[in-house]
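Re: How this chain folds, sequence and tokenised backbone to follow
Notation: Tokens come from a learned vocabulary of local backbone shapes, not from coordinates.
Start of record: The labelled sequence and token lines come straight after this line.
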Amino acid sequence: IIVGDVLKTDLPYFDVCVANLPYQISSPFVFKLLLHRPLFRCAVLMFQREFALRLVAKPGDKLYCRLSINTQLLAKIDHLIKVGKNNFRPPPKVESSVVRIEPINPIPPINFKEWDGLIRIVFSRKNRTLSASFKTHGVQAMLEKNYRIHCSIHDQTIEEDINIAGKVDNILKSVKADTKRARSMDMDDFL
């Protein structure tokens, strides 16, 4: 047992984690846990019900979101049991659920910053088509800036009349993703 702020503490090696955390640190704790090395075998955690349902949500579910896809990239997550608010004294204002998290080993060989950037863009409005998500002015400006930085780092010539929108549209069409919506895409669609 370690006393202190779990988000500020370096976690030692452990095999199993069982916890009932303050609900406001649920998301940062889950990602701290999933990025912990060496990998643990299993975690059984109690969360606010809506958060737990977001963790286990599948494509097409109303609660499917960035949290769902990001955690499911790194772990297998199962909803174990609902815990009613009347099981606590004093009863909280929210219902709870217990979930089991088992890290996937090995983790997918992807650049997590790029992955998170993609997921942020497509889930900012999960009902939009991917084509529409990438056509917003802010996303276009960011992509052009990143493209210019990439080209300068890799000593590549940048076309004078660069058309980022056209490049993105061609890529999305080539993988038949231009008309897809994030809300209904599974892990394989994103990878």
Remarks:
- The chain has a mean pLDDT of 93.
- The CA atoms of residues 88 and 95 lie 10 Å apart.
- The longest strand covers residues 75-83.
